[in-house]
Amino acid sequence: MAKRKIPQLIEALQAHHLSDAHRFLIEHCLQHMAFLEQAIEQLETRILQQINQTNLTRSFELLQTIPAIKQAAAAAILAEVGSSVEPFPSHKNLASWAGLCPGNNKSANKILGTNCTKGNQWLRSALAECAWSASMQNGSIFKGRFQRLAPRIGRRAAVVAVAHAMLIAIYDVLRTGQPYSKEAARDKPNQKHRLIRHHFRCLQQLGVKVTIDKPSETSA
């Protein structure tokens, strides 16, 4: 924290050949940084107190089971969505409300644009930051999603896709009241089919002929 290092920084400045005016300006900037950090700490403490005093504690903890969502992001999500997703019949409705439904702006399999629909800019901004972090987190399925999409549609569009996937996870944990599970997310039928299609295309691009056989039904 810069606030704790201010005495050492000021002492270091005295050893350099700076004018009094320069020292005054630098010290003033450091003191302003310390003030801002203290204000942020007070706000974060107040937010946590408000969460603990309401019925948001369980939802607050559930959100933090999702990769890359920490206390600040969880609080921002709850501030915009609330602890219940009942107003949203499905995750698609929540994604539309958040503005995380990318338009189908494609031509000949090329992405012509990455603009999202209009929506809640505060929620969308918080999820975008989480998506960037999740895309670099080892062991996260969101990182795998980003790495699959980025070469094909670009980094910005891939981050939007990751943010959309994270929003689905948020919807699920708030709807079910259960912690996020990587295995449960991976076992969803749509996710399974997407993975099959992805690897099928990769094998075709390598010139490998692939035949997909449906599992045979066993008689009782």
What would your notes on this structure say?
Strands 1-2 form a two-stranded antiparallel sheet. The protein has helices at residues 2-14, 20-52, 57-63, 71-81, 91-98, 121-134, 141-153, 155-176, 182-186, 189-205; strands spanning 106-107, 110-111. Helix 1 runs antiparallel to helix 2 (20-52) and helix 6 (121-134) crosses helix 8 (155-176). The model is unreliable at 104-113 (pLDDT under 50). It has ten helices and two strands; from the N terminus they run αααααββααααα.
| Uncertain regions spanning at least 5 consecutive residues | 104-113
Distance between the termini: 67 Å
Give the overall shape: extended
Give the integer mean of the pLDDT values: 80
Number of distinct helices: 10
Characteristics of this structure?
2 domains; 220 residues; two-stranded antiparallel sheet; 2 strands
Short structural summary:
The protein has 10 helices and 2 strands; from the N terminus they run H-H-H-H-H-E-E-H-H-H-H-H. It has 220 residues and is mostly helical. A two-stranded antiparallel ribbon has the order 1-2.
Break the fold down into its secondary structure elements and pairings.
Blueprint: H1 2-14, H2 20-52, H3 57-63, H4 71-81, H5 91-98, E1 106-107, E2 110-111, H6 121-134, H7 141-153, H8 155-176, H9 182-186, H10 189-205
Antiparallel strand pairs: 1-2
Helix pairs in contact: 1-2, 3-4, 4-6, 5-8, 6-8, 7-8
